[in-house]
Amino acid sequence: MTTETLEPPSLAEPTNKRGFNVRTLSLVGLLVVIAVTFHFLSGGLFLSARNLYNLVVQTSVVAILACGMTLVIVTRNIDLSVGSVLGCVGMVIALLQIEIFPQDAAWNWPLTVAIGIGLGALIGAWHGVWIAYFGVPSFVVTLGGLLIFRGAAFEVAQGKTLAPFDPVYRLFGGGIDGALGVGPSWALFAIIMVLYGLGEVLVHRRQMRLGFDSTVRTKLLRFLAVFVVAAAFVATMNSYMKPRSDIGRGIPVPALVLLSVVLFMEFVTRFTTFGRYIFAIGGNIEAARLNGIPTRRTVLKVFIAMGVLCAIAAVVTTARLNAGTSSTGELLELSAIAAAVIGGASLSGGRGTIAGAVVGALIIQSLESGMVLIGASSSQRMVAIGLVLMVAVLADKYLSGEE
Amino acid sequence: MTTETLEPPSLAEPTNKRGFNVRTLSLVGLLVVIAVTFHFLSGGLFLSARNLYNLVVQTSVVAILACGMTLVIVTRNIDLSVGSVLGCVGMVIALLQIEIFPQDAAWNWPLTVAIGIGLGALIGAWHGVWIAYFGVPSFVVTLGGLLIFRGAAFEVAQGKTLAPFDPVYRLFGGGIDGALGVGPSWALFAIIMVLYGLGEVLVHRRQMRLGFDSTVRTKLLRFLAVFVVAAAFVATMNSYMKPRSDIGRGIPVPALVLLSVVLFMEFVTRFTTFGRYIFAIGGNIEAARLNGIPTRRTVLKVFIAMGVLCAIAAVVTTARLNAGTSSTGELLELSAIAAAVIGGASLSGGRGTIAGAVVGALIIQSLESGMVLIGASSSQRMVAIGLVLMVAVLADKYLSGEE
Amino acid sequence: MKPLIEMRGVSKAFGGVHAVEDVDVDLYPGEVVAVLGHNGAGKSTLMKMLAGAYRRDTGTVLVDGNPAELSSPAEAFDLGIETIHQTLALADNLDASANLFLGREIAWRVGPFKIMDSAQMRDHAAKVINQLNPRFTNLNTPCRDLSGGQRQTIAIARAIHFEARVLIMDEPTAALGPHETAMVGELIRELKAKGIGIFLISHDMHDVFDLADRLVVMKNGQVVGSAKKDDVTQDEVLGMIILGKCPPNAEPGPGARVSQ
Amino acid sequence: MKPLIEMRGVSKAFGGVHAVEDVDVDLYPGEVVAVLGHNGAGKSTLMKMLAGAYRRDTGTVLVDGNPAELSSPAEAFDLGIETIHQTLALADNLDASANLFLGREIAWRVGPFKIMDSAQMRDHAAKVINQLNPRFTNLNTPCRDLSGGQRQTIAIARAIHFEARVLIMDEPTAALGPHETAMVGELIRELKAKGIGIFLISHDMHDVFDLADRLVVMKNGQVVGSAKKDDVTQDEVLGMIILGKCPPNAEPGPGARVSQ
Amino acid sequence: ADITVGMSWANYQEERWKIDESGLRAGLEEAGAELVTADAQSSNERQASDIDGLLARGVDVLLIVAWDSEAIIPSVERALAEGVPVIAYERQIEYPGVYYVAFDPVEVGRIQARELVRAQPKGDYVIIKGSPTDQYAHYVLTGQKEIIDPLIANGDITIVGEQWTDGWVPDNAQKNMENILTAVNDKVDAVLASNDGTAGGVVAALTSVGLEGIPVSGQDGDIAALNRIALGTQTVTAWKDARELGRLGAKVALELAKGTAPEDIEGSVVWDKGPKGTAQNASVLAPVTITHENLDVVVDADWISKEDLCAGVTENAPAACN
Ligand SMILES: Nc1ncnc2c1ncn2[C@@H]1O[C@H](COP(=O)(O)OP(=O)(O)OP(=O)(O)O)[C@@H](O)[C@H]1O
Ligand SMILES: Nc1ncnc2c1ncn2[C@@H]1O[C@H](COP(=O)(O)OP(=O)(O)OP(=O)(O)O)[C@@H](O)[C@H]1O
Ligand SMILES: [Mg+2]
Ligand SMILES: [Mg+2]
Question: The whole model's pTM is what?
Answer without folding.
Answer: 0.93
